[in-house]
Task: inverse folding
């Protein structure tokens, strides 16, 4: 595998990692149509766990089949495909070597009351399934956040020792956080920074709004005249919170929405120096040709 | 053991599993009168734990003896016999090789208040007792659901590494779920899908009703015009939720009921593409000859 | 050690156990005056933990000394002596080989509020102290029952792998159970059955009353016309719940009571097919000669 | 090391222990001015943890230095010195071989609300620091008592396997216990007995009062006419609860008090057959020469 | 590395530690401009975790980059740099050998409700990253304090066995403690003493106020006429609580404040015999040249 200069510089930021882990990061960063650019588009399919199969796949029934998603990610030229254990198991052999996979090792569901997730996969699973990385969600703010952080700490240590990269979904939720606070600028940057401090190689957060939720933070935004009035500036601010760009950060698309909004997000991420998008429902809930079309355009934005 | 083309195609869906685990799945799928058809009838006897010995066995006292159930399963030509530790221990040697066994490794009882189960067996037990699989119940929705999922995750990893198949009983219960919701169409499909994502080889759920319990799901059923008005369509919908048929799914019979209802269920399961029935009280609570007769007819339905 | 035909048939029921474990069961079943009959009388001395030393030993002060109990069990020709760690440690060397011992590995006390017990001994302890078995109490119904069951599951697996037999004290308590329900016929049979399903070799329960506590069970007792009007019939019903007699079941004596009541119990146990008595306070709280006299008569009943 | 006949007889009571553990018990029993008499005086310095440094050491500031206590115990000719990890670490090398040490492996503090302690040392620590024993506090009656008992069970098993002796501080506290009940005669005897059953080699309790706290116990005290009207009789009663004297039992001094009260306690302990005193604040909170004088007199009492 | 006489004497106080651990303590004590003096200034950068990236780094944006802090610590000639996992990982290779690092292995955040921290690093991490020590925060008084103490106990045992030094941040908080009590003289001394008893090599506390929070302590301060009226006397009192100076103790700067206050603190620490300062926000939140200037002056104070 040839490593581009751009990717080489990114890998250099992971200076404490062993060659195995860097190799897996490189697999993700060099794969697909954005391979070598330092930008990524990842397909995550854990919505069946989070929202149930009907809400996730009924709009486009072929998506009930795990192979559909592997093939979509491959054909769209994405960087990686992320999913929970059972879905990876169902296609790992057919698509071995075809696309880097990220084993999502914890999951919640819409029947649950606590703001927590169940650990549903392991580093050992990732190894036997040939995954390049594990993915783990933390809920900063939740009363279970410390337990979640301790779970990923332990799994990340094991992953790094075995050459597996670590992706952290950092989603503020629970505790004293209001709905607005969950996507507030200060909270989002905080969530991204904590993921970086926890040792994530790749950080996934939601696009932040212009809300500032914490009073103590608000004072600083005002005193330092930090401008977060545009999406691009907000994405750039999150990049800053990720060790000033030393860690790869990608943004989720959130709920299904119009294509224009998706492209606007991507342009702003690109402009703000973010590394890319992780986009699920907006792709697999539409017919395959439409999904490929949308992903193609998205990739063009990041290539520009 | 000759493997039929039908079973070979089913095994191919378990593409990440090692030959040991596939071998045990094959033992179950190739055994008995339905061997090779891709359909199964399994005898589960954990009701003594769940409801007590009197409610379970007094209607047919020979059933107090564990050997009775082994023999019934063998003589009826079923695919497998599932029971908790003590019951398997009591017959494993006498019936070694006579029928594939599934060690039910967790159990609740009718004296319990929390919606949880105790882990009462292990993979190591399954290995020493020559079992083909472990069986584990999760209660999606329960406040203990994450802990239960983490237990089976750990046990499933160990099972798969040792060539033991994994059967998940996925029974929504507890939390905010109403009694009706427990068997609602959307919840049942969700429960089956989560079992698949947790890495189950065989999924066991209850037959769904036409109720849709979650508002967010209801919108999708309506928008997508999903027809779940007949039992067969509901079973087919559950099959879809099991990775579009890539995972074996069987349905429990529920409370003791009339034979016609049992046969109607089986026909609908068969028509909907479900893999079979797991039927306990409706067999062992009647005299042995009646039970054999009922099981014989059931098998005929699945053979048709 | 010569094994009687009677004991050989009992051992055959433990068909999944290794020769080490069967050997230890045989040690208990072949020891003492009832050796070889398939009947047992066991001396348990954990009352010091459960009720305190004064309530247990002050009526017969020599009983403060652990050696007193070892010697009593030996001289009375009992099958085994059961006690917590410290008491076994205090006599295990002096009485090595003189009588099979059962290490009681969990204990509660009368200062405790939760319906639970502390694990106070281990399989490793049992091995170093030359014990034939471990003894463990579960409280079916208690809110801690699942944790207790998981503790004995783990210890039983370890015990069986090391050739140590497992005795379960199954005492319904806590949760929604009323005082009456704790010794009700249906609950007692249920408790015995759960111990059997948990893999116990020897089951210890309290003598059941004629009360039926659960409505769902009551219907079955009535529908099936199950006669539990006499003590012997109730004991026989418990034996049935123990895999139709495939597992050894003994009955505790409960609070100190008149000798006639004790003998009546034993006769009924014997008549009902129960395997024997486990009798503590009614023996060691009276002078040694009186205790030997009582135990002698008890043994005669079981020999008849 | 020459072992006196008296100590030999005591060691014989620990009949299940390995030579390593007996050797460490012998080190304690043969050391200092009371060496060989079967009586002990131990210096415990965990008050800094329990009450803070100022309340513990300000009355005699040299006592802030860990070496002060080692030296005091050595110079006074005591049997052993007990303290938490940091304090033992601070002097273990300077005083290696000079005096047997007991590593206090759990501790509470006066800022804590739950009736529990933190485990703050390990058997491995005891081994690397050359300690003869570990010391552990249980709070019988506390809602955390079962967890505490399970902690010492596990540590005691490890200690005994590595030749380390086990000292249990058994202090009833919490739950339904009133302040008076904590030192009541029946509760103290019960606490001592539970420590013995948990496998302690040396038991430490507080001097009991004449109060009888439990109704069920009161009946027995009255029925059996147990006389606990004098301190000596109460100490003798505790000795009885320690396997009729088969286990070494020492009594703490409690709060700082007058010398006469201390000597009276010691005389009563001696008369009642108790093995000695464990005395902290009453020694190290006074000037060194006064402490040596007091300890000298105390030792004389036990030598008489 | 040449070890000064001063440092040699300090190392002698850690008499139970192995040469590996002493070597790492020596690395810290001999490094930088204060190397060999027995005094230290340490740069801690865990504020991004505790308060978020914006509140921590926005006042001086280059500080978003982990390398900034490594370089600052190196250029200022400090003794060590302390930070959570991700930040150490981001610079450990570039600055290998350039400055001793302390891996902060637990962290809280301002979104959390419980007074607890998540374990976010391990001894194994410290070893692979070449750290000289681990840093761990306890919250004495918190309802989670026992769990925190047990975490550091386990990690400290592992650290010491692998030659890694242990730094404990002892910050009273939670439970019944008022805000004033958190920095009260008696509580601060108590917190420092507990850290020492837990086996810390280096203790970090906040500067104490003249408040005495506990009644029982107040009596002793009055009775013993302990003068804590000046900062220097209060620092000396804390040193006394650290085994009379046998353990290194450093003081945090607390919130950003005027330079004069910082220098006054340092002078008082120096006069009181404290070992130094651990100072974060007051340095990295100002421009680099100003920070170097401030640190230079601070070092001069400790050199005087």
Result:
């Amino acid at each position: 595998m040839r490593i581009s200069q751009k990717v080489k510089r990114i890998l250099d930021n992971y200076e404490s990692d062993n060659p195995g882990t860097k190799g897996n990061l490189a697999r993700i960063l060099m794969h697909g149509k954005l391979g070598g650019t330092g930008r990524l588009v990842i397909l995550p399919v854990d919505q069946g766990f989070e929202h149930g199969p009907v809400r996730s796949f009924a709009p486009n029934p072929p998506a009930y089949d795990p192979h559909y998603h592997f093939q979509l990610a491959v054909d769209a030229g994405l960087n990686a495909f992320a999913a929970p254990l059972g879905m990876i198991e169902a296609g790992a052999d057919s698509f071995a070597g075809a696309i880097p996979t990220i084993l999502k090792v914890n999951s919640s569901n819409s029947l649950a009351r606590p703001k927590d997730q169940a650990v549903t996969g392991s580093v050992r699973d990732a190894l036997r399934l040939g995954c390049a990385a594990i993915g783990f969600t933390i809920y900063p703010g939740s009363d279970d956040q410390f337990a979640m952080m301790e779970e990923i700490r332990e799994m990340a240590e094991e992953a790094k020792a075995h050459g597996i990269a670590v992706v952290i979904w950092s989603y503020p939720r629970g505790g004293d956080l209001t709905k607005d606070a969950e996507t507030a600028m200060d909270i989002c940057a905080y969530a991204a920074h904590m993921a970086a401090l926890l040792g994530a190689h790749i950080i996934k957060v939601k696009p932040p709004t212009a809300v500032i939720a914490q009073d103590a933070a608000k004072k600083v935004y005002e005193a330092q005249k930090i401008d977060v009035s545009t999406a691009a500036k907000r994405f750039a601010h999150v990049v800053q919170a990720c060790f000033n760009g030393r860690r790869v950060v990608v943004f989720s698309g959130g709920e299904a929405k119009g294509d224009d909004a998706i492209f606007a997000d991507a342009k702003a991420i690109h402009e703000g120096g973010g590394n890319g998008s992780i986009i699920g429902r907006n792709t697999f809930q539409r017919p395959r040709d439409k999904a490929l079309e949308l992903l193609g355009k998205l990739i063009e934005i990041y290539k520009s």
Q: What stands out?
A: The radius of gyration of chain A is 18 Å.
